[in-house]
Amino acid sequence: MFDDDELLFSERPEWSDVTPLEQYENLNPLAPIFYTDEYKDATNYLRAIVKSGEKTKRVLELTENIIKQNPAHYSAWQYRYETFITLLFPSSPPKPSKALATNPMVIAELALMDELAVRFLKTYQVWHHRRLLVALTRQPRRELGFIKKSLEADAKNYHTWSYRQWTLAFFGGAGGGGGVAVESSDENDIDFEVGEDLWAGELDFVDAMLAQDIRNNSAWHHRFFVVWGCGVREGELDRERISKRELIFVKQHISFAPNNPSAWNYLRGILRHTSTPFSSVAAFAEPYTSSKESISRDNIVDLDNPRPGEGAELPCSEALEFMADVHEAKTTEEGVNSAVEIWKNLATEHDTMRKKYWEHRIRSAHRSLNTATNAA
Amino acid sequence: MTPRPVATDAFPTATSRAQAETEAVLLKHIAAPDIQQDPVLDKTSHMQFLVRNLVQGFPSRYISQDASQPWLLFWTIQSFSSLQVALDPANKQRVIDKVMKWQHPDGGFGGGPGQAAHLLPTYASVCTLAVVGRSGTGGGWDQIDRAAIYKFFMSLKQNDGSFLVAHHSEVDVRGIYCLLVVATLLDILTPELVEGTAEFIASCQTYEGGFASASHPSYSLGGELLPHGPRPPLGEAHGGYTFCALASWVLLQPYLASIANDSRPKPAINIDSLLRWLVHMQGIDIELGGFKGRTNKLVDGCYSWWCGGAFSLLEALGVGGLQNAVSEEVPIDSGTPEGVWDDVDEGLLNRHALQEYVLSAGQHPAGGLRDKPPKNADAYHTHYCLSGLSSAQHHVFPSKLRRSQVEEAWEATDSHNDAMRKRCFSEILSWTEEEGGSHIIGGQNNRVNATHPVTNLTMTHTEQFVSYFYKQKVPARILRKKPTTSPASAPGPGTKDAPAATTTS
């Protein structure tokens, strides 16, 4: 399929000992797929091999052929992995070790994965196979570089990002190095590359990704993962300093492009994660709820409360929603009234698609207030 | 008036450029206000598309889905169901025969003959059999090896409560959803199977409110799971995973109810942030009210189901539509409808706009449904656009009245797991279409069948299938009409921070 000169497996003398196995024998199935000859040929041989249980070198060739025609063929991947492990550990149970990284079979497999990941970026199996390999070789650092490169082709690829997060968590989660558990390894044998420095470049990496596209939600999520999601690493022990740093970061990014739900979600996320009341950033959010004309433009630079940028389209509905939450949290009648005012505004003017939701917020705020009043 | 674009704040990036391109395309599909014609669901051409796939087959580009043959068939067959079409007995038999070729001798179903068993095709195969199968020789139902499926499921279980989707494969919540639907339908759900799974699901919720594909557990150096260590989600909040996680959460309620009284700490999800995230996935006017799958991504017809359909699931957790559900608690002959019906609440999403999206942008002129113009139609989008349309047309809710009817009809067995089986059975069958609760854009001709919010089968298929495997009778539904008087609005119980629905049987 990718090389016209390549022979079908049925034409190769070295496969003549295998009897290919048709997919649907004695059945004329509904909803058939029109296979190419190459695909039909290769998968007929895979079925035969799976049935016989053969795990030899030529199975790697066969499964590679199928995977290149259909990277989502998970059974081909699964059988390839089992074969690979059998060949790699012919006489002992599989054991991760750094030494594997220089094994020619492993090197070849990783090189193939580099090629396939770029070609089939959206396939689960490509990334998972890689994960199985790296769990064996314990060499995560190379992965971070590779991921960075493949994000250049697709900056929001779900698999790529979650693979990066897996790599970081697996090789150095809470405190670094806590993330490893492999059935077959006993403690003394674990030799792998960990350390804080695996994580050292992550914030710079996120900064670079967000500089490319401030609206890349995958990058915002990664930032949350790195700063908040994985426990506290060394150098980040002063949580107050970290909170402050992150608040300044997200506020600045909101000021560049206020109508960016990713940034507002990050702001909400860190406030909730640190149990900080929304009201603590009300002074920042408020100017984003005004219409543009009403914002006074002075030369005072307030780092804690950066103002909307020149091109900002205001009012910004995320800011309105945020301020309504601030008011509602006061749990007073005035507070709820102010919140309701904003929700009505959103429902009728600024975010009419979510009218039902804003009405729901109005009802439930009234209800909570009534319950509180009755209880008092 | 042209709807306003998503604000870019004079700060263009790759995201805003892709968004602007999509808006320009969608703008052409907004019905001009001077055209007073309602959008039509072109059932005939969609049927032609589906029948072509079924009878003639799928073109070569579908080789990429050769490991998803059960899905191709399920999407096709279930789309028929949505379009109120049933197969003739001969073709039903051909479907059954094909599905049975996928069953793996060691349990579960694979993506095709000779392929390894996998959770996703297991769901698609079993659900296809729910539609076309029957009991008896060659009918499929009795040929499902339930004991082997259970063993297969257990062999995939991880110590953080999650499941691999197949041996040597990844963990993700799609697989868990598929496993839980199958286990519930086939009456093989045990406490042992799902212990720790709710904790895993909860750990996949991200700071945005939606759910990610999976999470990563913390281990001690000795390799033991640290129950209180961080379990960061891998990947951002995503519509498909959110549906699967939320439906899993709903399917785990019978188990959670069964352990409600022990002293272990119980997992929890944040329903407020989930609701907020879900409503924000609905695009604005210029996006025709379609749903997107992640923050700052583009609308896509398939999220009509993954996100749009998730709102019904929220009702099982006490959010939205509550007034209607509670109203069923009032006996029909009480003669006091006052304060019972609340017409204000017809869902927390914009059902009207969602239907418009599917009808105006989701239909391919040559038949079949799609992500968005100018993309091609495919089997996947056809099914999920239709399911999403169905969820926007009908109000299907977990009726407490229905649940108690089903519970009362339960014949106790000497199974040691009887109480939980009864809960599974009555909760999955409690879902009820609200009479008179349909809002169909474009008129009755556009009506598609109501879909069970958890299984994504029709209500009838779900009922027949479940009844067979639990060996229990399902009581006839009592039809009731909505009172025509317009009563004062009913103060429902607080929905905020409402605990997960639990049975009180």
UniProtKB/TrEMBL annotation, chain A:
This is Protein farnesyltransferase/geranylgeranyltransferase type-1 subunit alpha. Its cofactor is Mg(2+). GO terms for molecular function: CAAX-protein geranylgeranyltransferase activity; protein farnesyltransferase activity. The keyword Transferase applies. It is an enzyme of class 2 (transferase). Keywords: Magnesium, Prenyltransferase, Repeat, Transferase. The lineage of its organism: Eukaryota, Fungi, Dikarya, Basidiomycota, Agaricomycotina. InterPro entries: Prenyl_trans_a (IPR002088). One of its GO terms (cellular component) is CAAX-protein geranylgeranyltransferase complex. Its EC number is 2.5.1.58, 2.5.1.59. PANTHER family: PROTEIN FARNESYLTRANSFERASE ALPHA SUBUNIT/RAB GERANYLGERANYL TRANSFERASE ALPHA SUBUNIT (PTHR11129), PROTEIN FARNESYLTRANSFERASE_GERANYLGERANYLTRANSFERASE TYPE-1 SUBUNIT ALPHA (PTHR11129:SF1). Pfam families: PPTA. Belongs to the protein prenyltransferase subunit alpha family.
UniProtKB/TrEMBL annotation, chain B:
Pfam families: Prenyltrans. Binds 1 zinc ion per subunit. The keyword Transferase applies. The keyword Transferase applies. One of its GO terms (molecular function) is protein farnesyltransferase activity. Residues 41-456 form the Prenyltransferase alpha-alpha toroid domain. Its cofactor is Zn(2+). Heterodimer of an alpha and a beta subunit. Belongs to the protein prenyltransferase subunit beta family. This is Protein farnesyltransferase subunit beta.
